[in-house]
Design goal:
By secondary structure, the protein is α/β, with parallel strands linked by helices. It has two domains: 124 residues, Response regulator (Rossmann fold, 3-Layer(aba) Sandwich); 68 residues, Orthogonal Bundle (Arc Repressor Mutant, subunit A), CATH 1.10.10.10. Helices cover 50% and strands 13% of the residues. The protein is built from ten helices and six strands, in the order βαβαβαβαβαβααααα. A six-stranded parallel beta sheet has the order 2-1-3-4-5-6, with helices on both faces. β3, α3 and β4 form a beta-alpha-beta unit. The protein is globular.
């Protein structure tokens, strides 16, 4: 059973999402916080597996809340709930370890799938805002947040691994990468784990930034830059 906590300052959203997710056979809602401070307290007491996090909340916003939760409980997955004008918030949340973001108003099926995907180690970016994610990674790559990888660490990367690095840099989910490369999602997850180990990177977000920095994300064939 996947334990989920929602943090949102709008009561209607808290109630509606709690209701639809609690109806899923493999998901259990363990709390609903009205602000970031409540969310941090509930995380300590309820120990959820996944937190659905609004970015604009009183007392402690979703970015700082994500930072504090991931610092204290790195195993907990955070999915940001956002609107189209929340770019700066999302940028910060991804930087602190969020597993992706969804637009508010996403379908019940997509929301439940997102919860399951992050529990499998994947990342979620709503297709409608994937281009914004690429822009954010580009800003990260051009700014002060650089991801360094020794060239020797890339020597053992296989052709399929270069292709997957390219797709991660383009903001694709594991499911989308699997479809594009005619692989199973499990194989994609295994590849990503292997890539992170070979490059000594912490997570998928660092891999995406590195993919953009090196130009791998712009290669049409998905090979090395």
């Amino acid at each position: 059973m996947i334990r989920v906590l929602i943090a949102d300052d709008q009561e209607l959203i808290r109630q509606s999402l709690s209701f639809v997710l609690d109806a899923q056979p493999d998901i259990q809602m363990v709390g609903a916080a009205a602000n970031g401070r409540e969310a941090i307290e509930m995380v300590r007491s309820q120990k959820p597996d996944v937190v659905l996090m609004d970015v604009r909340m009183p007392e402690v916003d979703g970015v700082e809340c994500t930072r504090l939760i991931k610092a204290a409980h790195p195993q907990i997955k955070v999915i940001i709930l956002t609107t189209f004008d929340d770019d700066d918030y999302v940028f910060g949340a991804l930087r602190y370890g969020a597993s992706g973001y969804l637009l508010k108003g996403v379908s019940v099926a997509d929301l439940a799938s997102a919860v399951r995907e992050v529990m499998r180690g994947g990342s979620i970016i709503t297709p409608g805002v994937a281009s914004k994610a690429i822009e954010m990674f580009g800003r990260m790559a051009r700014g002060s947040m650089q991801v360094s990888v020794d060239e020797k660490q890339t020597a053992d990367l296989q052709e399929n691994e270069w292709k997957i690095i390219r797709e991660v840099g383009c903001g694709l989910s594991n499911k989308e990468i699997a479809a594009a490369l005619c692989l199973s999602e499990g194989t994609v997850r295994n590849y990503i784990s292997s890539i992170l180990s070979k490059l000594a990177l912490r997570d998928r977000t660092q891999l995406a930034i590195w993919s953009v920095q090196t130009g791998t994300a712009t290669q049409p064939f998905g090979g090395r830059p």
